[in-house]
Amino acid sequence: MSTTLSNLLHEVRRFEPPAELAAAANVGGAEYDTAARDRLGFWHRQALRLSWTQPWREILDWSNPPFAKWFVGGRLNVAYNCVDRHVAAGHGERVAIHWEGEPGDTRTITYADLLGEVSRAANALTALGVGQGDRVAIYLPMIPEAVVAMLACARIGATHSVVFGGFSAESLRSRVADAGAKLVITADGGYRRGKPSPLKATVDAAVADDTSVEHVVVVRRTGAEVDWTQGRDLWWHEVVDTASPEHEPESFDAEHPLFILYTSGTTGKPKGILHTSGGYLTQAAYTHDAVFDLKPETDVYWCTADIGWVTGHSYLVYGPLANGATQVMYEGTPDTPDRGRWWEVIERYGVTILYTAPTAVRTFMKWGSDIPARHDLSSLRVLGSVGEPINPEAWIWYRENIGGNRTPIVDTWWQTETGAIMISPLPGVTATKPGSAMDPLPGIAVDVVDRNGNPVGNGEGGRLVATEPWPSMARTIWGDDERFVRTYWSDLPGRYLTGDGAKRDQDGDLWLLGRIDDVMLVSGHNISTAEVESALVSHPRVAEAAVVGAADATTGQGIVAFVILRGDAARDESEGAALAGELRAHVATQIGAIAKPRQVIVVPELPKTRSGKIMRRLLRDVAENRPLGDVTTLQDSSVMDQISSGLSAGA
Ligand code: WT7
Q1: Which cofactor does it need (predicted)?
Q2: Superfamily of segment(s) 526-649
Q3: From the CA of 261, how far away is ligand 1's center (Å)?
Q4: Which of 106, 131, 225, 610 gets the most CB atoms within 10 Å of its CB?
């Protein structure tokens, strides 16, 4: 990628950490050196944050790479660490979860309440014959029972597999089958955009045929009518509420499987990423403390991710609860009942730390800055971003309009496979650059390398790899060690291949460029989709952009850009052609003539997966005039129709 254009490297703005935050930060700059001098010693000390019933005899066993064992011989109970020990330390009355249902109903759950609920659920699961090593599928909306169910599994040594509540019956069926789940925990429904969504019916369809599933436990949330299979189906309130709130936690090996989480990827059968207990919890807890500067006594933390994604696992359940945090959990969408819902929640609970995704930030940009401006957001002190590159324009908008031009932004890079944050600024240490994830965290070793595995210099791009094992790394793909080795560890032996492109700027700071597959080859130049998108969004009229490379007889690939205009930009159809010309010229000035899109298409929406990632594959189908491929993982299935009808109307 040495010919990659360097638009992103032109960013010159720097934001120093606020002095007050820096002075009281959990982690100072010296930690980078300490950890680099003795990486294993550093992780040994981080593991001491947790409560173990038996100490480990070895920090890392890397004798059979890439199959790591961390904290060998150590034993702990993950749920005890997330709940009981805070109660034992006298914090039982601290709020663990301020839950907010979409229709406006609320629940306040203290750590003492959580202990009772998790214990009851653990007893109920045991009574249903679920034990150590069994798999439990969780298919729930964003309600407290989802957290309780995950922790109850952890408490009894069952391995959970959370399946996002928006997935279809077929996706659920294949995940249940792959994991061989014995039990499914679901609900009669959940609220999204003002409507109850049926979940139980999807489970019924998914487990209709011959499956490993013995029981389906159903939480009553919406009160909707559900079909019932006698003997198989049980109400949560009948089995859990009647169980004893006392449960003695057993301890499990540090490498005991904690959860499986399926990553859909763009092709092939979903991969069941396996995470284990001691190393995973250590890094989830450390990073949550260091990256968000969490002060459990005073902060109110809010991660907006769904528990169906790894962000929900590590930064809504395991990290924050291991750290004794007080957090907000919200069931619904940001535009219900109106587009100010999140800001209203922040104001009401006095949220101090917000962790969300660039796609949400760009949506709010599109809706206009007057909406957050109507709310008092002055409680916020740290803002986080995750999921895809955050372009400088969105970064600045987030800082100015949500962070009052005062809060640090931590752009956190990681993956389902890495289990926890790997690259991020530290809010009390790093002078940030909008759009850069900056540096690997203390104790983490990554590099940017060329095709042959040689490190690139500053100012160069290449493939992002991890060069040393880390505690929360995936241990394997469930049931397929060979695929684990082939997918992540074969191309460059000894190094973990992230699949992402990255660039180091002149200071050596890291800029993530998206998946390597998203790099375009135009007239022999490698151009990353992220760079062109970033240039487009820096134009005042563009809210969001997605760029793809389409086959081109002359240039190999031609750049096709799909753009959504900003809410406050006038929408005059006749002006479309002029605007397209203006945007092409804008990209040329921002990056260079070579990156000028062949075509700019104004669209009302972009096709996204349910986790908010743009499905470039579908846009490539449009750009190359092909019938659309598989659209089943689309968040909103009508989007492609809207795009296609817009195209024919414009033609
Ligand atoms: C992929 C992993 C990490 C939890 C949510 C997504 C992209 C993630 C960033 C970031 C640029 C990012 C990468 C990565 N990604 N965070 N801060 N900057 N890109 O987990 O579904 O496993 O996706 O998301 O491409 O490989 P995931």
Answers
A1: Mg(2+)
A2: ANL, C-terminal domain (3.30.300.30)
A3: 15
A4: 610
**Contact residues of ligand 1, CB 6 A cut-off:** 263, 309-311, 386-389, 411-416, 437, 498-500, 512, 514-515, 611
Domain with CATH 3.40.50.12780 in the chain: 21-379
For residue 514, the CA-to-ligand 1 centroid distance in Å is 8
Where does CATH 3.30.300.30 sit in the chain? 526-649
Q: For residue 63, what are the CA distances in angstroms to 58, 59, 69, 267, 469?
A: 12, 12, 9, 32, 12
- Give the CATH number of domain 21-379: 3.40.50.12780
- CA dist., res. 287 & res. 55, Å (int): 22
Sign of CA dihedral 415, 476, 44, 83: positive
**Mean pLDDT, 10 residues at a time, over the chain (651 residues)?**
46 91 98 98 98 98 98 99 98 98 98 98 98 98 98 98 90 94 97 91 92 96 96 98 98 98 73 98 99 98 97 98 98 97 98 96 94 98 95 95 98 98 98 97 97 93 96 98 96 94 94 85 80 90 92 88 78 72 90 88 88 85 83 77 64 32
How would you classify the pairing of strands 556-565 and 599-602? parallel
Tokens 């995950």 belong to which residue?
Answer: 150
Protein residue whose Cα sits closest to atom 20 of ligand 1: 415
- DSSP letter for 273, please: E
Q: Residue 306 and residue 330: Cα distance in Å, rounded?
A: 9
Q: Whole-prediction pTM value?
A: 0.89
Nearest partner of 180 among 134, 217, 138, judged by Cα: 134
- Please state the atom number of ligand 1 nearest to the C-alpha of residue 423: 17
Ligand 1 atom closest to Cα of residue 390: 18
Closest C-alpha residue for ligand 1 atom 2: 415
